[in-house]
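Q: what does this look like with nicotinamide-adenine-dinucleotide bound?
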Amino acid sequence: MGRVEGKVAFITGAARGQGRSHALRLAEEGADIVAVDACEDIATLEYPMATEADLRETEKLVRERGRRVLARKVDVRDQAGLNQVAADAVEQLGGMDIVSANAGICGCRPTFDLSDDEWQDMVDVNMTGVWRTVKATVPHLIEAGRGGSVVLTSSIVTFVGAANVAHYNASKSGVVGLMKTLSAELGKHRIRVNAVHPGNVATDMLFSESTLRVFCPDLENPTVEDLRERARGGDVLGQGWVEAEDISNAVLYLASDEARFVTGISLPVDCGRRIG
Ligand SMILES: NC(=O)c1ccc[n+]([C@@H]2O[C@H](COP(=O)([O-])OP(=O)(O)OC[C@H]3O[C@@H](n4cnc5c(N)ncnc54)[C@H](O)[C@@H]3O)[C@@H](O)[C@H]2O)c1
């Protein structure tokens, strides 16, 4: 019996990285998966987003784990698109129990060099996109009356602060506020709401050229190994980063009934970065 056997999990940003990892980990533990991703680049970002081929790969990998999957190309800024895939999930998979609002973007620039468009895209995807995701899904959980677990992806940056990510930090801090209010409102429906706060995670976001430059501003062509050396010094376990699966295991715990009395918390998975 899997730890989320028979449940249905709605996951945004599921085409690659942490979102794909969450989909596979939850599927391995018995959940059917709704995998949502925009699969479109965003003009204000310096690194590419996932592709439709990535989303199809997630779909295939979930199927290989013996679970049902509904994969859909939808942007978390598109409320009508999210509403439609949530309604289709209820019809085709028999409801939803777990929501992982994971889709997110990152950028790095000194605060007063940020363009209005950079600020707006960050807030629209990372904060308002999370709100749109819960708006599309949680009413179905309430209506079904069988409780549920909502996990919002924030970031360790909300604890430690960091230069050159004002728009990112503001958007991820907004997610924490949303998590706290939702956990207060939804407890009476046995729906728990928590946030996971990843530290550095080995995904395309961390390994993008723009992030490498932030960690190694003094190097002309910084590499992933340069990043590893710099990042190691930033956490008490001397790791530098964790794997996507480490975040998925935290999401799995929060999603499962093992966390049945856990709501309204911020769970860092950061090798102790915030205390180092
Ligand atoms: N990688 C890190 O070091 C790190 C650290 C802290 C927090 N996070 C957060 O973890 C989450 C997952 O990031 P990741 O590390 O897997 O990065 P990633 O770039 O590999 O994956 C992000 C996914 O979200 C999708 N996406 C982006 N904008 C979207 C939109 N508007 N609508 C739907 N899908 C969209 C992308 O296509 C991609 O598949 C993000 O919220 C990120 O902010 C990452």
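The chain is about 45% helix and 15% strand. The mean pLDDT is 96.
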